[in-house]
Prior knowledge:
The complex is a heterotrimer.
Chain A: H1 3-15, H2 18-26, H3 32-36, H4 38-43, H5 55-65, H6 67-74, H7 83-95, H8 102-106, H9 113-127, H10 132-144, H11 152-166, E1 179-181, H12 185-189, H13 192-205, E2 209-210, H14 221-225, H15 228-245, E3 249-252, H16 256-270, E4 277-280, H17 281-290, E5 304-307, H18 320-329, E6 333-334, H19 359-365, H20 367-376, E7 380-383, H21 386-398, E8 404-407, H22 408-414
Parallel strand pairs in A: 1-2, 1-3, 3-4, 5-6, 5-7, 7-8
Helix pairs in contact in A: 1-9, 5-6, 7-9, 11-13, 13-22, 15-16, 17-18
Chain B: H1 2-7, H2 9-32, H3 45-55, H4 61-66, H5 68-87, H6 89-100, H7 109-132, H8 134-139, H9 142-160, H10 167-183, H11 191-209
Chain C: H1 7-33, H2 42-53, H3 71-78, H4 101-136, E1 148-151, H5 155-189, H6 191-223, H7 233-238, H8 256-280, H9 288-316, H10 323-329, E2 331-333, H11 334-340, H12 342-350, E3 355-356, H13 357-362, H14 376-379
Antiparallel strand pairs in C: 1-2, 1-3
Helix pairs in contact in C: 1-4, 1-10, 4-9, 5-6, 6-8, 8-9, 11-12
Amino acid sequence: MSDRIEQARAELRSQIDAKVSSYFSSCIHCGLCAEACHFHVETGDPRYTPIYKLEPMRKLWRSEHTLSGRFSKLLGRSTELSEQDFADWEELVYDSCNLCGRCSMVCPVGIDIAYMLRKQREAFNLSGYTPEGMRNALQRTLTTGSPMGVTLKTLQATLAHVEKASGLTIPIDRQGADFMALFSSMEVVNFPEYIASVARIFDTAGVSWTISSEAFEATNAGIQIGSREGAKEIVSRAVNAAEKLGVNYLISPECGHAYTAIRWEGPNLIGRRYRFEVIHILELLDQLMREGRIRFNGKSDTPMTLHDPCQIVRRGGVIKAPRNLLHQVASGFVETTDHGSMNWCCGGGGGVSANERAEALRLKVFGRKKKQFEESGVDTVVTACANCRIVLEEGLEHYEMDTEVIGLTELVAEYLEQGAD
Amino acid sequence: MIGDFIDGPLWYLSLTVFLLGVVWRLVAILRVGVAPDFSTARHGGAGGALRTLFTRSLPRRPVFTRGKVQLIAGYMFHLGLFALLFLAQPHVEFISERITGFGWVTLPHWGFILAAEVAFAGLLLLLLYRLMNPVTRLISDTGDYTASLLVFLVMLSGCLALAQAYEGLRLLHLLLAELLLIYFPFSTLMHAFTFAISRGYTGAAMARKGVNA
Amino acid sequence: MYRPVSGTAILRLLQLLIVLALVVAGNLSAQTQAEGIQLPNPGTDLWREVRQRAQPATPGPTSPMRQAPGIDLWSEVQQTNPVPAGNTQVKSVDSGMLINPVGDQWRRFRMEMLVPYGGYVLGGALLLTLAFYLIRGRVPIHAGPSDKRLLRYTVYERMIHWFIAAIFLFLALTGLTMLFGRSLLIPLLGPEAFSLLASASKEGHNLFGPLFLLALALIFFRFVRRNIYQRGDLAWLLRGGGVIGSKHVPSNFFNMGEKSMFWMLVLVGGVTALSGIILVFPILGLGRELMALSHVAHGVTAMAMMVVIVGHIYIGSIGMEGALEGMATGYCDLNWAREHHDWWAEQCEQNGEVVSVEEAAGTEGFAQGAPKHAPLGETGK
């Protein structure tokens, strides 16, 4: 057995904590998690049952943490977790799981499957059985600072463009600012409107903010592929920059998994508390609105619905803020059937959108979103995650639907009442 | 003679294995611990743990619509079994005599029979669902079938002994129950205890993030 | 890591069980005929006495019975002429009746009709089935097994089928133990072991009985629509469902035979279940006559059901190639469907519901409209 596999097994072994032990001890294989997973629901394939995706980890747990497992090992009846197991499960672990955590919400014994899958990916990363697209994204982030290869120069070009169009100045490296904003590469490249909107809103509300030239990338390919070291490096850049500038708050952009990375996993990756607070852009906008620092000029009467990004809502707890904001700027806001913490994932989370080989499957399971949107009866979907947005647009195009996708921050900026003058 | 053994030493042995086994399993799980969480919590974890401990006993609507059969059969089995185990008059008498020294309210005979009917229907349907549904068939292992079968046999032998007139039938029921007790700590039947730990952990972690799990 | 129970394993097990059942049945019917063991039965002797004493006056004035002083009393006891019930302080059903002769009639029916003739009928059905198998052999899929499948039964449908099947088998075994135990099992086990077994059977039978009613209701609501008689069913019947002659007879999702079995199960089984409920709950305030009648109905209908179910089990397992597959896996062979339910198969083919063996093995047939393609292969590495 190769070194890599030995390392991967050791990693998996170290990932088994009291939670994992309790979870596996509790699982009675009822299969209800399958009914919550869009990969299973849309394909009917039993292999996409969430708990089944954790078989490698369960195999190790069973052989080392249970009497029957140890007994059958003693008798030579059970085999060690092998390289073949990693090879066999790679697709289930990376292509058919968005880490969206919907399964974790329905398990009758309360198993957090997404929590364990995230841990299992650490071992898969060491084993080398990872999708090429995700490996490259992490590598690019570590070397260039962005999974899409966006450099400071690219950002500066975008910012110059935004400044020219809006007439605003975007502060860079301003020492002692209250807030430091992060962006995702997707926003810099595909949705510069987001940056423009943030600049306008902050200008109106009189928010003291800045962007760091040392760290502006919020996305974290490390937590998607399951590389603790990579994720730590990426988080550290933002943390160091924020602490260097002495800001009080770090703003996580609309991007979903960036929020999980910087808000919830970050402190644990670097092993300490931050000297600042992390706030999601939607939370900040909601707060500004409630403080009366931003006001709105009318509402959109277009009927629209909200797609809750998993990592921001279900796994992030920003549930009310987007709704508070939407109600202020849209009179025709309707909820989808399963919304909030039970929303269906767009299918691109957890690194799946960066994994080219998973594209056919991703588009297939998008059928779930298609049905959900059709049921809602509206043609406009608001969301708050650049990755969701791209994936939704691709899916809608694939199914030839005329649904429009818009970013919530942009919608807020559109109806913003300019200065009190 | 074998009857004396089942009624005496084996009963105490199985009870000891059960109690020590369960404690050992729980300690083994909790001893590993969980890494400290440095992220700033939105809410305390304790409240969430307590809430999820109870709320997970009720299915969320989206899953209820898709998992009706498992959920209804699951409720039937569990509620019926609890009523049988703790409220049936022969069981209360047995527990009072052998363990606690005191008894409590028991179900009337018809209630006992009804509970048995419900539990049997639930268990049979769950077992058949496990065999018929591709998902459960794929993820189930020998332990799941052993546990289901053993529980079924204990219940069946119990219902065959309902007349309470034959020592042999009572001993058969007791013997099977003892085997179940011995098997319990080393099987998925442990979920009867660990479900609380699992729900607690998940509820706490999610409450920290501000989500009702 | 996983050992899923395969469909063929279930098939083998069923085959084994059926062969075993046939062997046992052979012995059973042989022993029924050889019912010769005399057992103490005080009731029999008492009633023989009562019947003799209450013998109506035989012709001839010299008959000594005429002088018997007890004649009127016994006549009244046996209630040969309708007599009003007596008076008593005890208030309950039948409490004013000293001895009810209906009990004797019922007892005689059970001992002298139901047990022997029931045994012959049941044994006969098993022997007939065996003979049919030996003569006709297994009905093959003439076109041979194909690699295409049709979804025939969903998970839920299979689940409730095996639910009622398990309950039926348990009730049949415990019921037969109680009915034939005296003549068949006591000689084998001795009276003490049998009394334990009989008690266990009675308790088990009573407990599972109401579950049969539940299962029957589930089956009824799920399958009733497909079992309504429609055009073509009569033709199927007239041509003997293909048993007579060698030509295929077209049929729908269920053929005439299956539909008739369904209605038999619902109607006759309903009587069995309801009469059983009356017997289990004597507290309902029903008289002894009704109890006796319920028992007769219970015994006769149960016997009828068992005979039909023997045929059902036979044709659904070893009697026909491909018949068990649908109920075991949910999917049936396309060629099987074409040969036995061709109108339905045709409709499925027109609707494009034909799947490959691999798809059938990998996907669930749960009625949720889930697409039937497994994309794990498509996405490839």
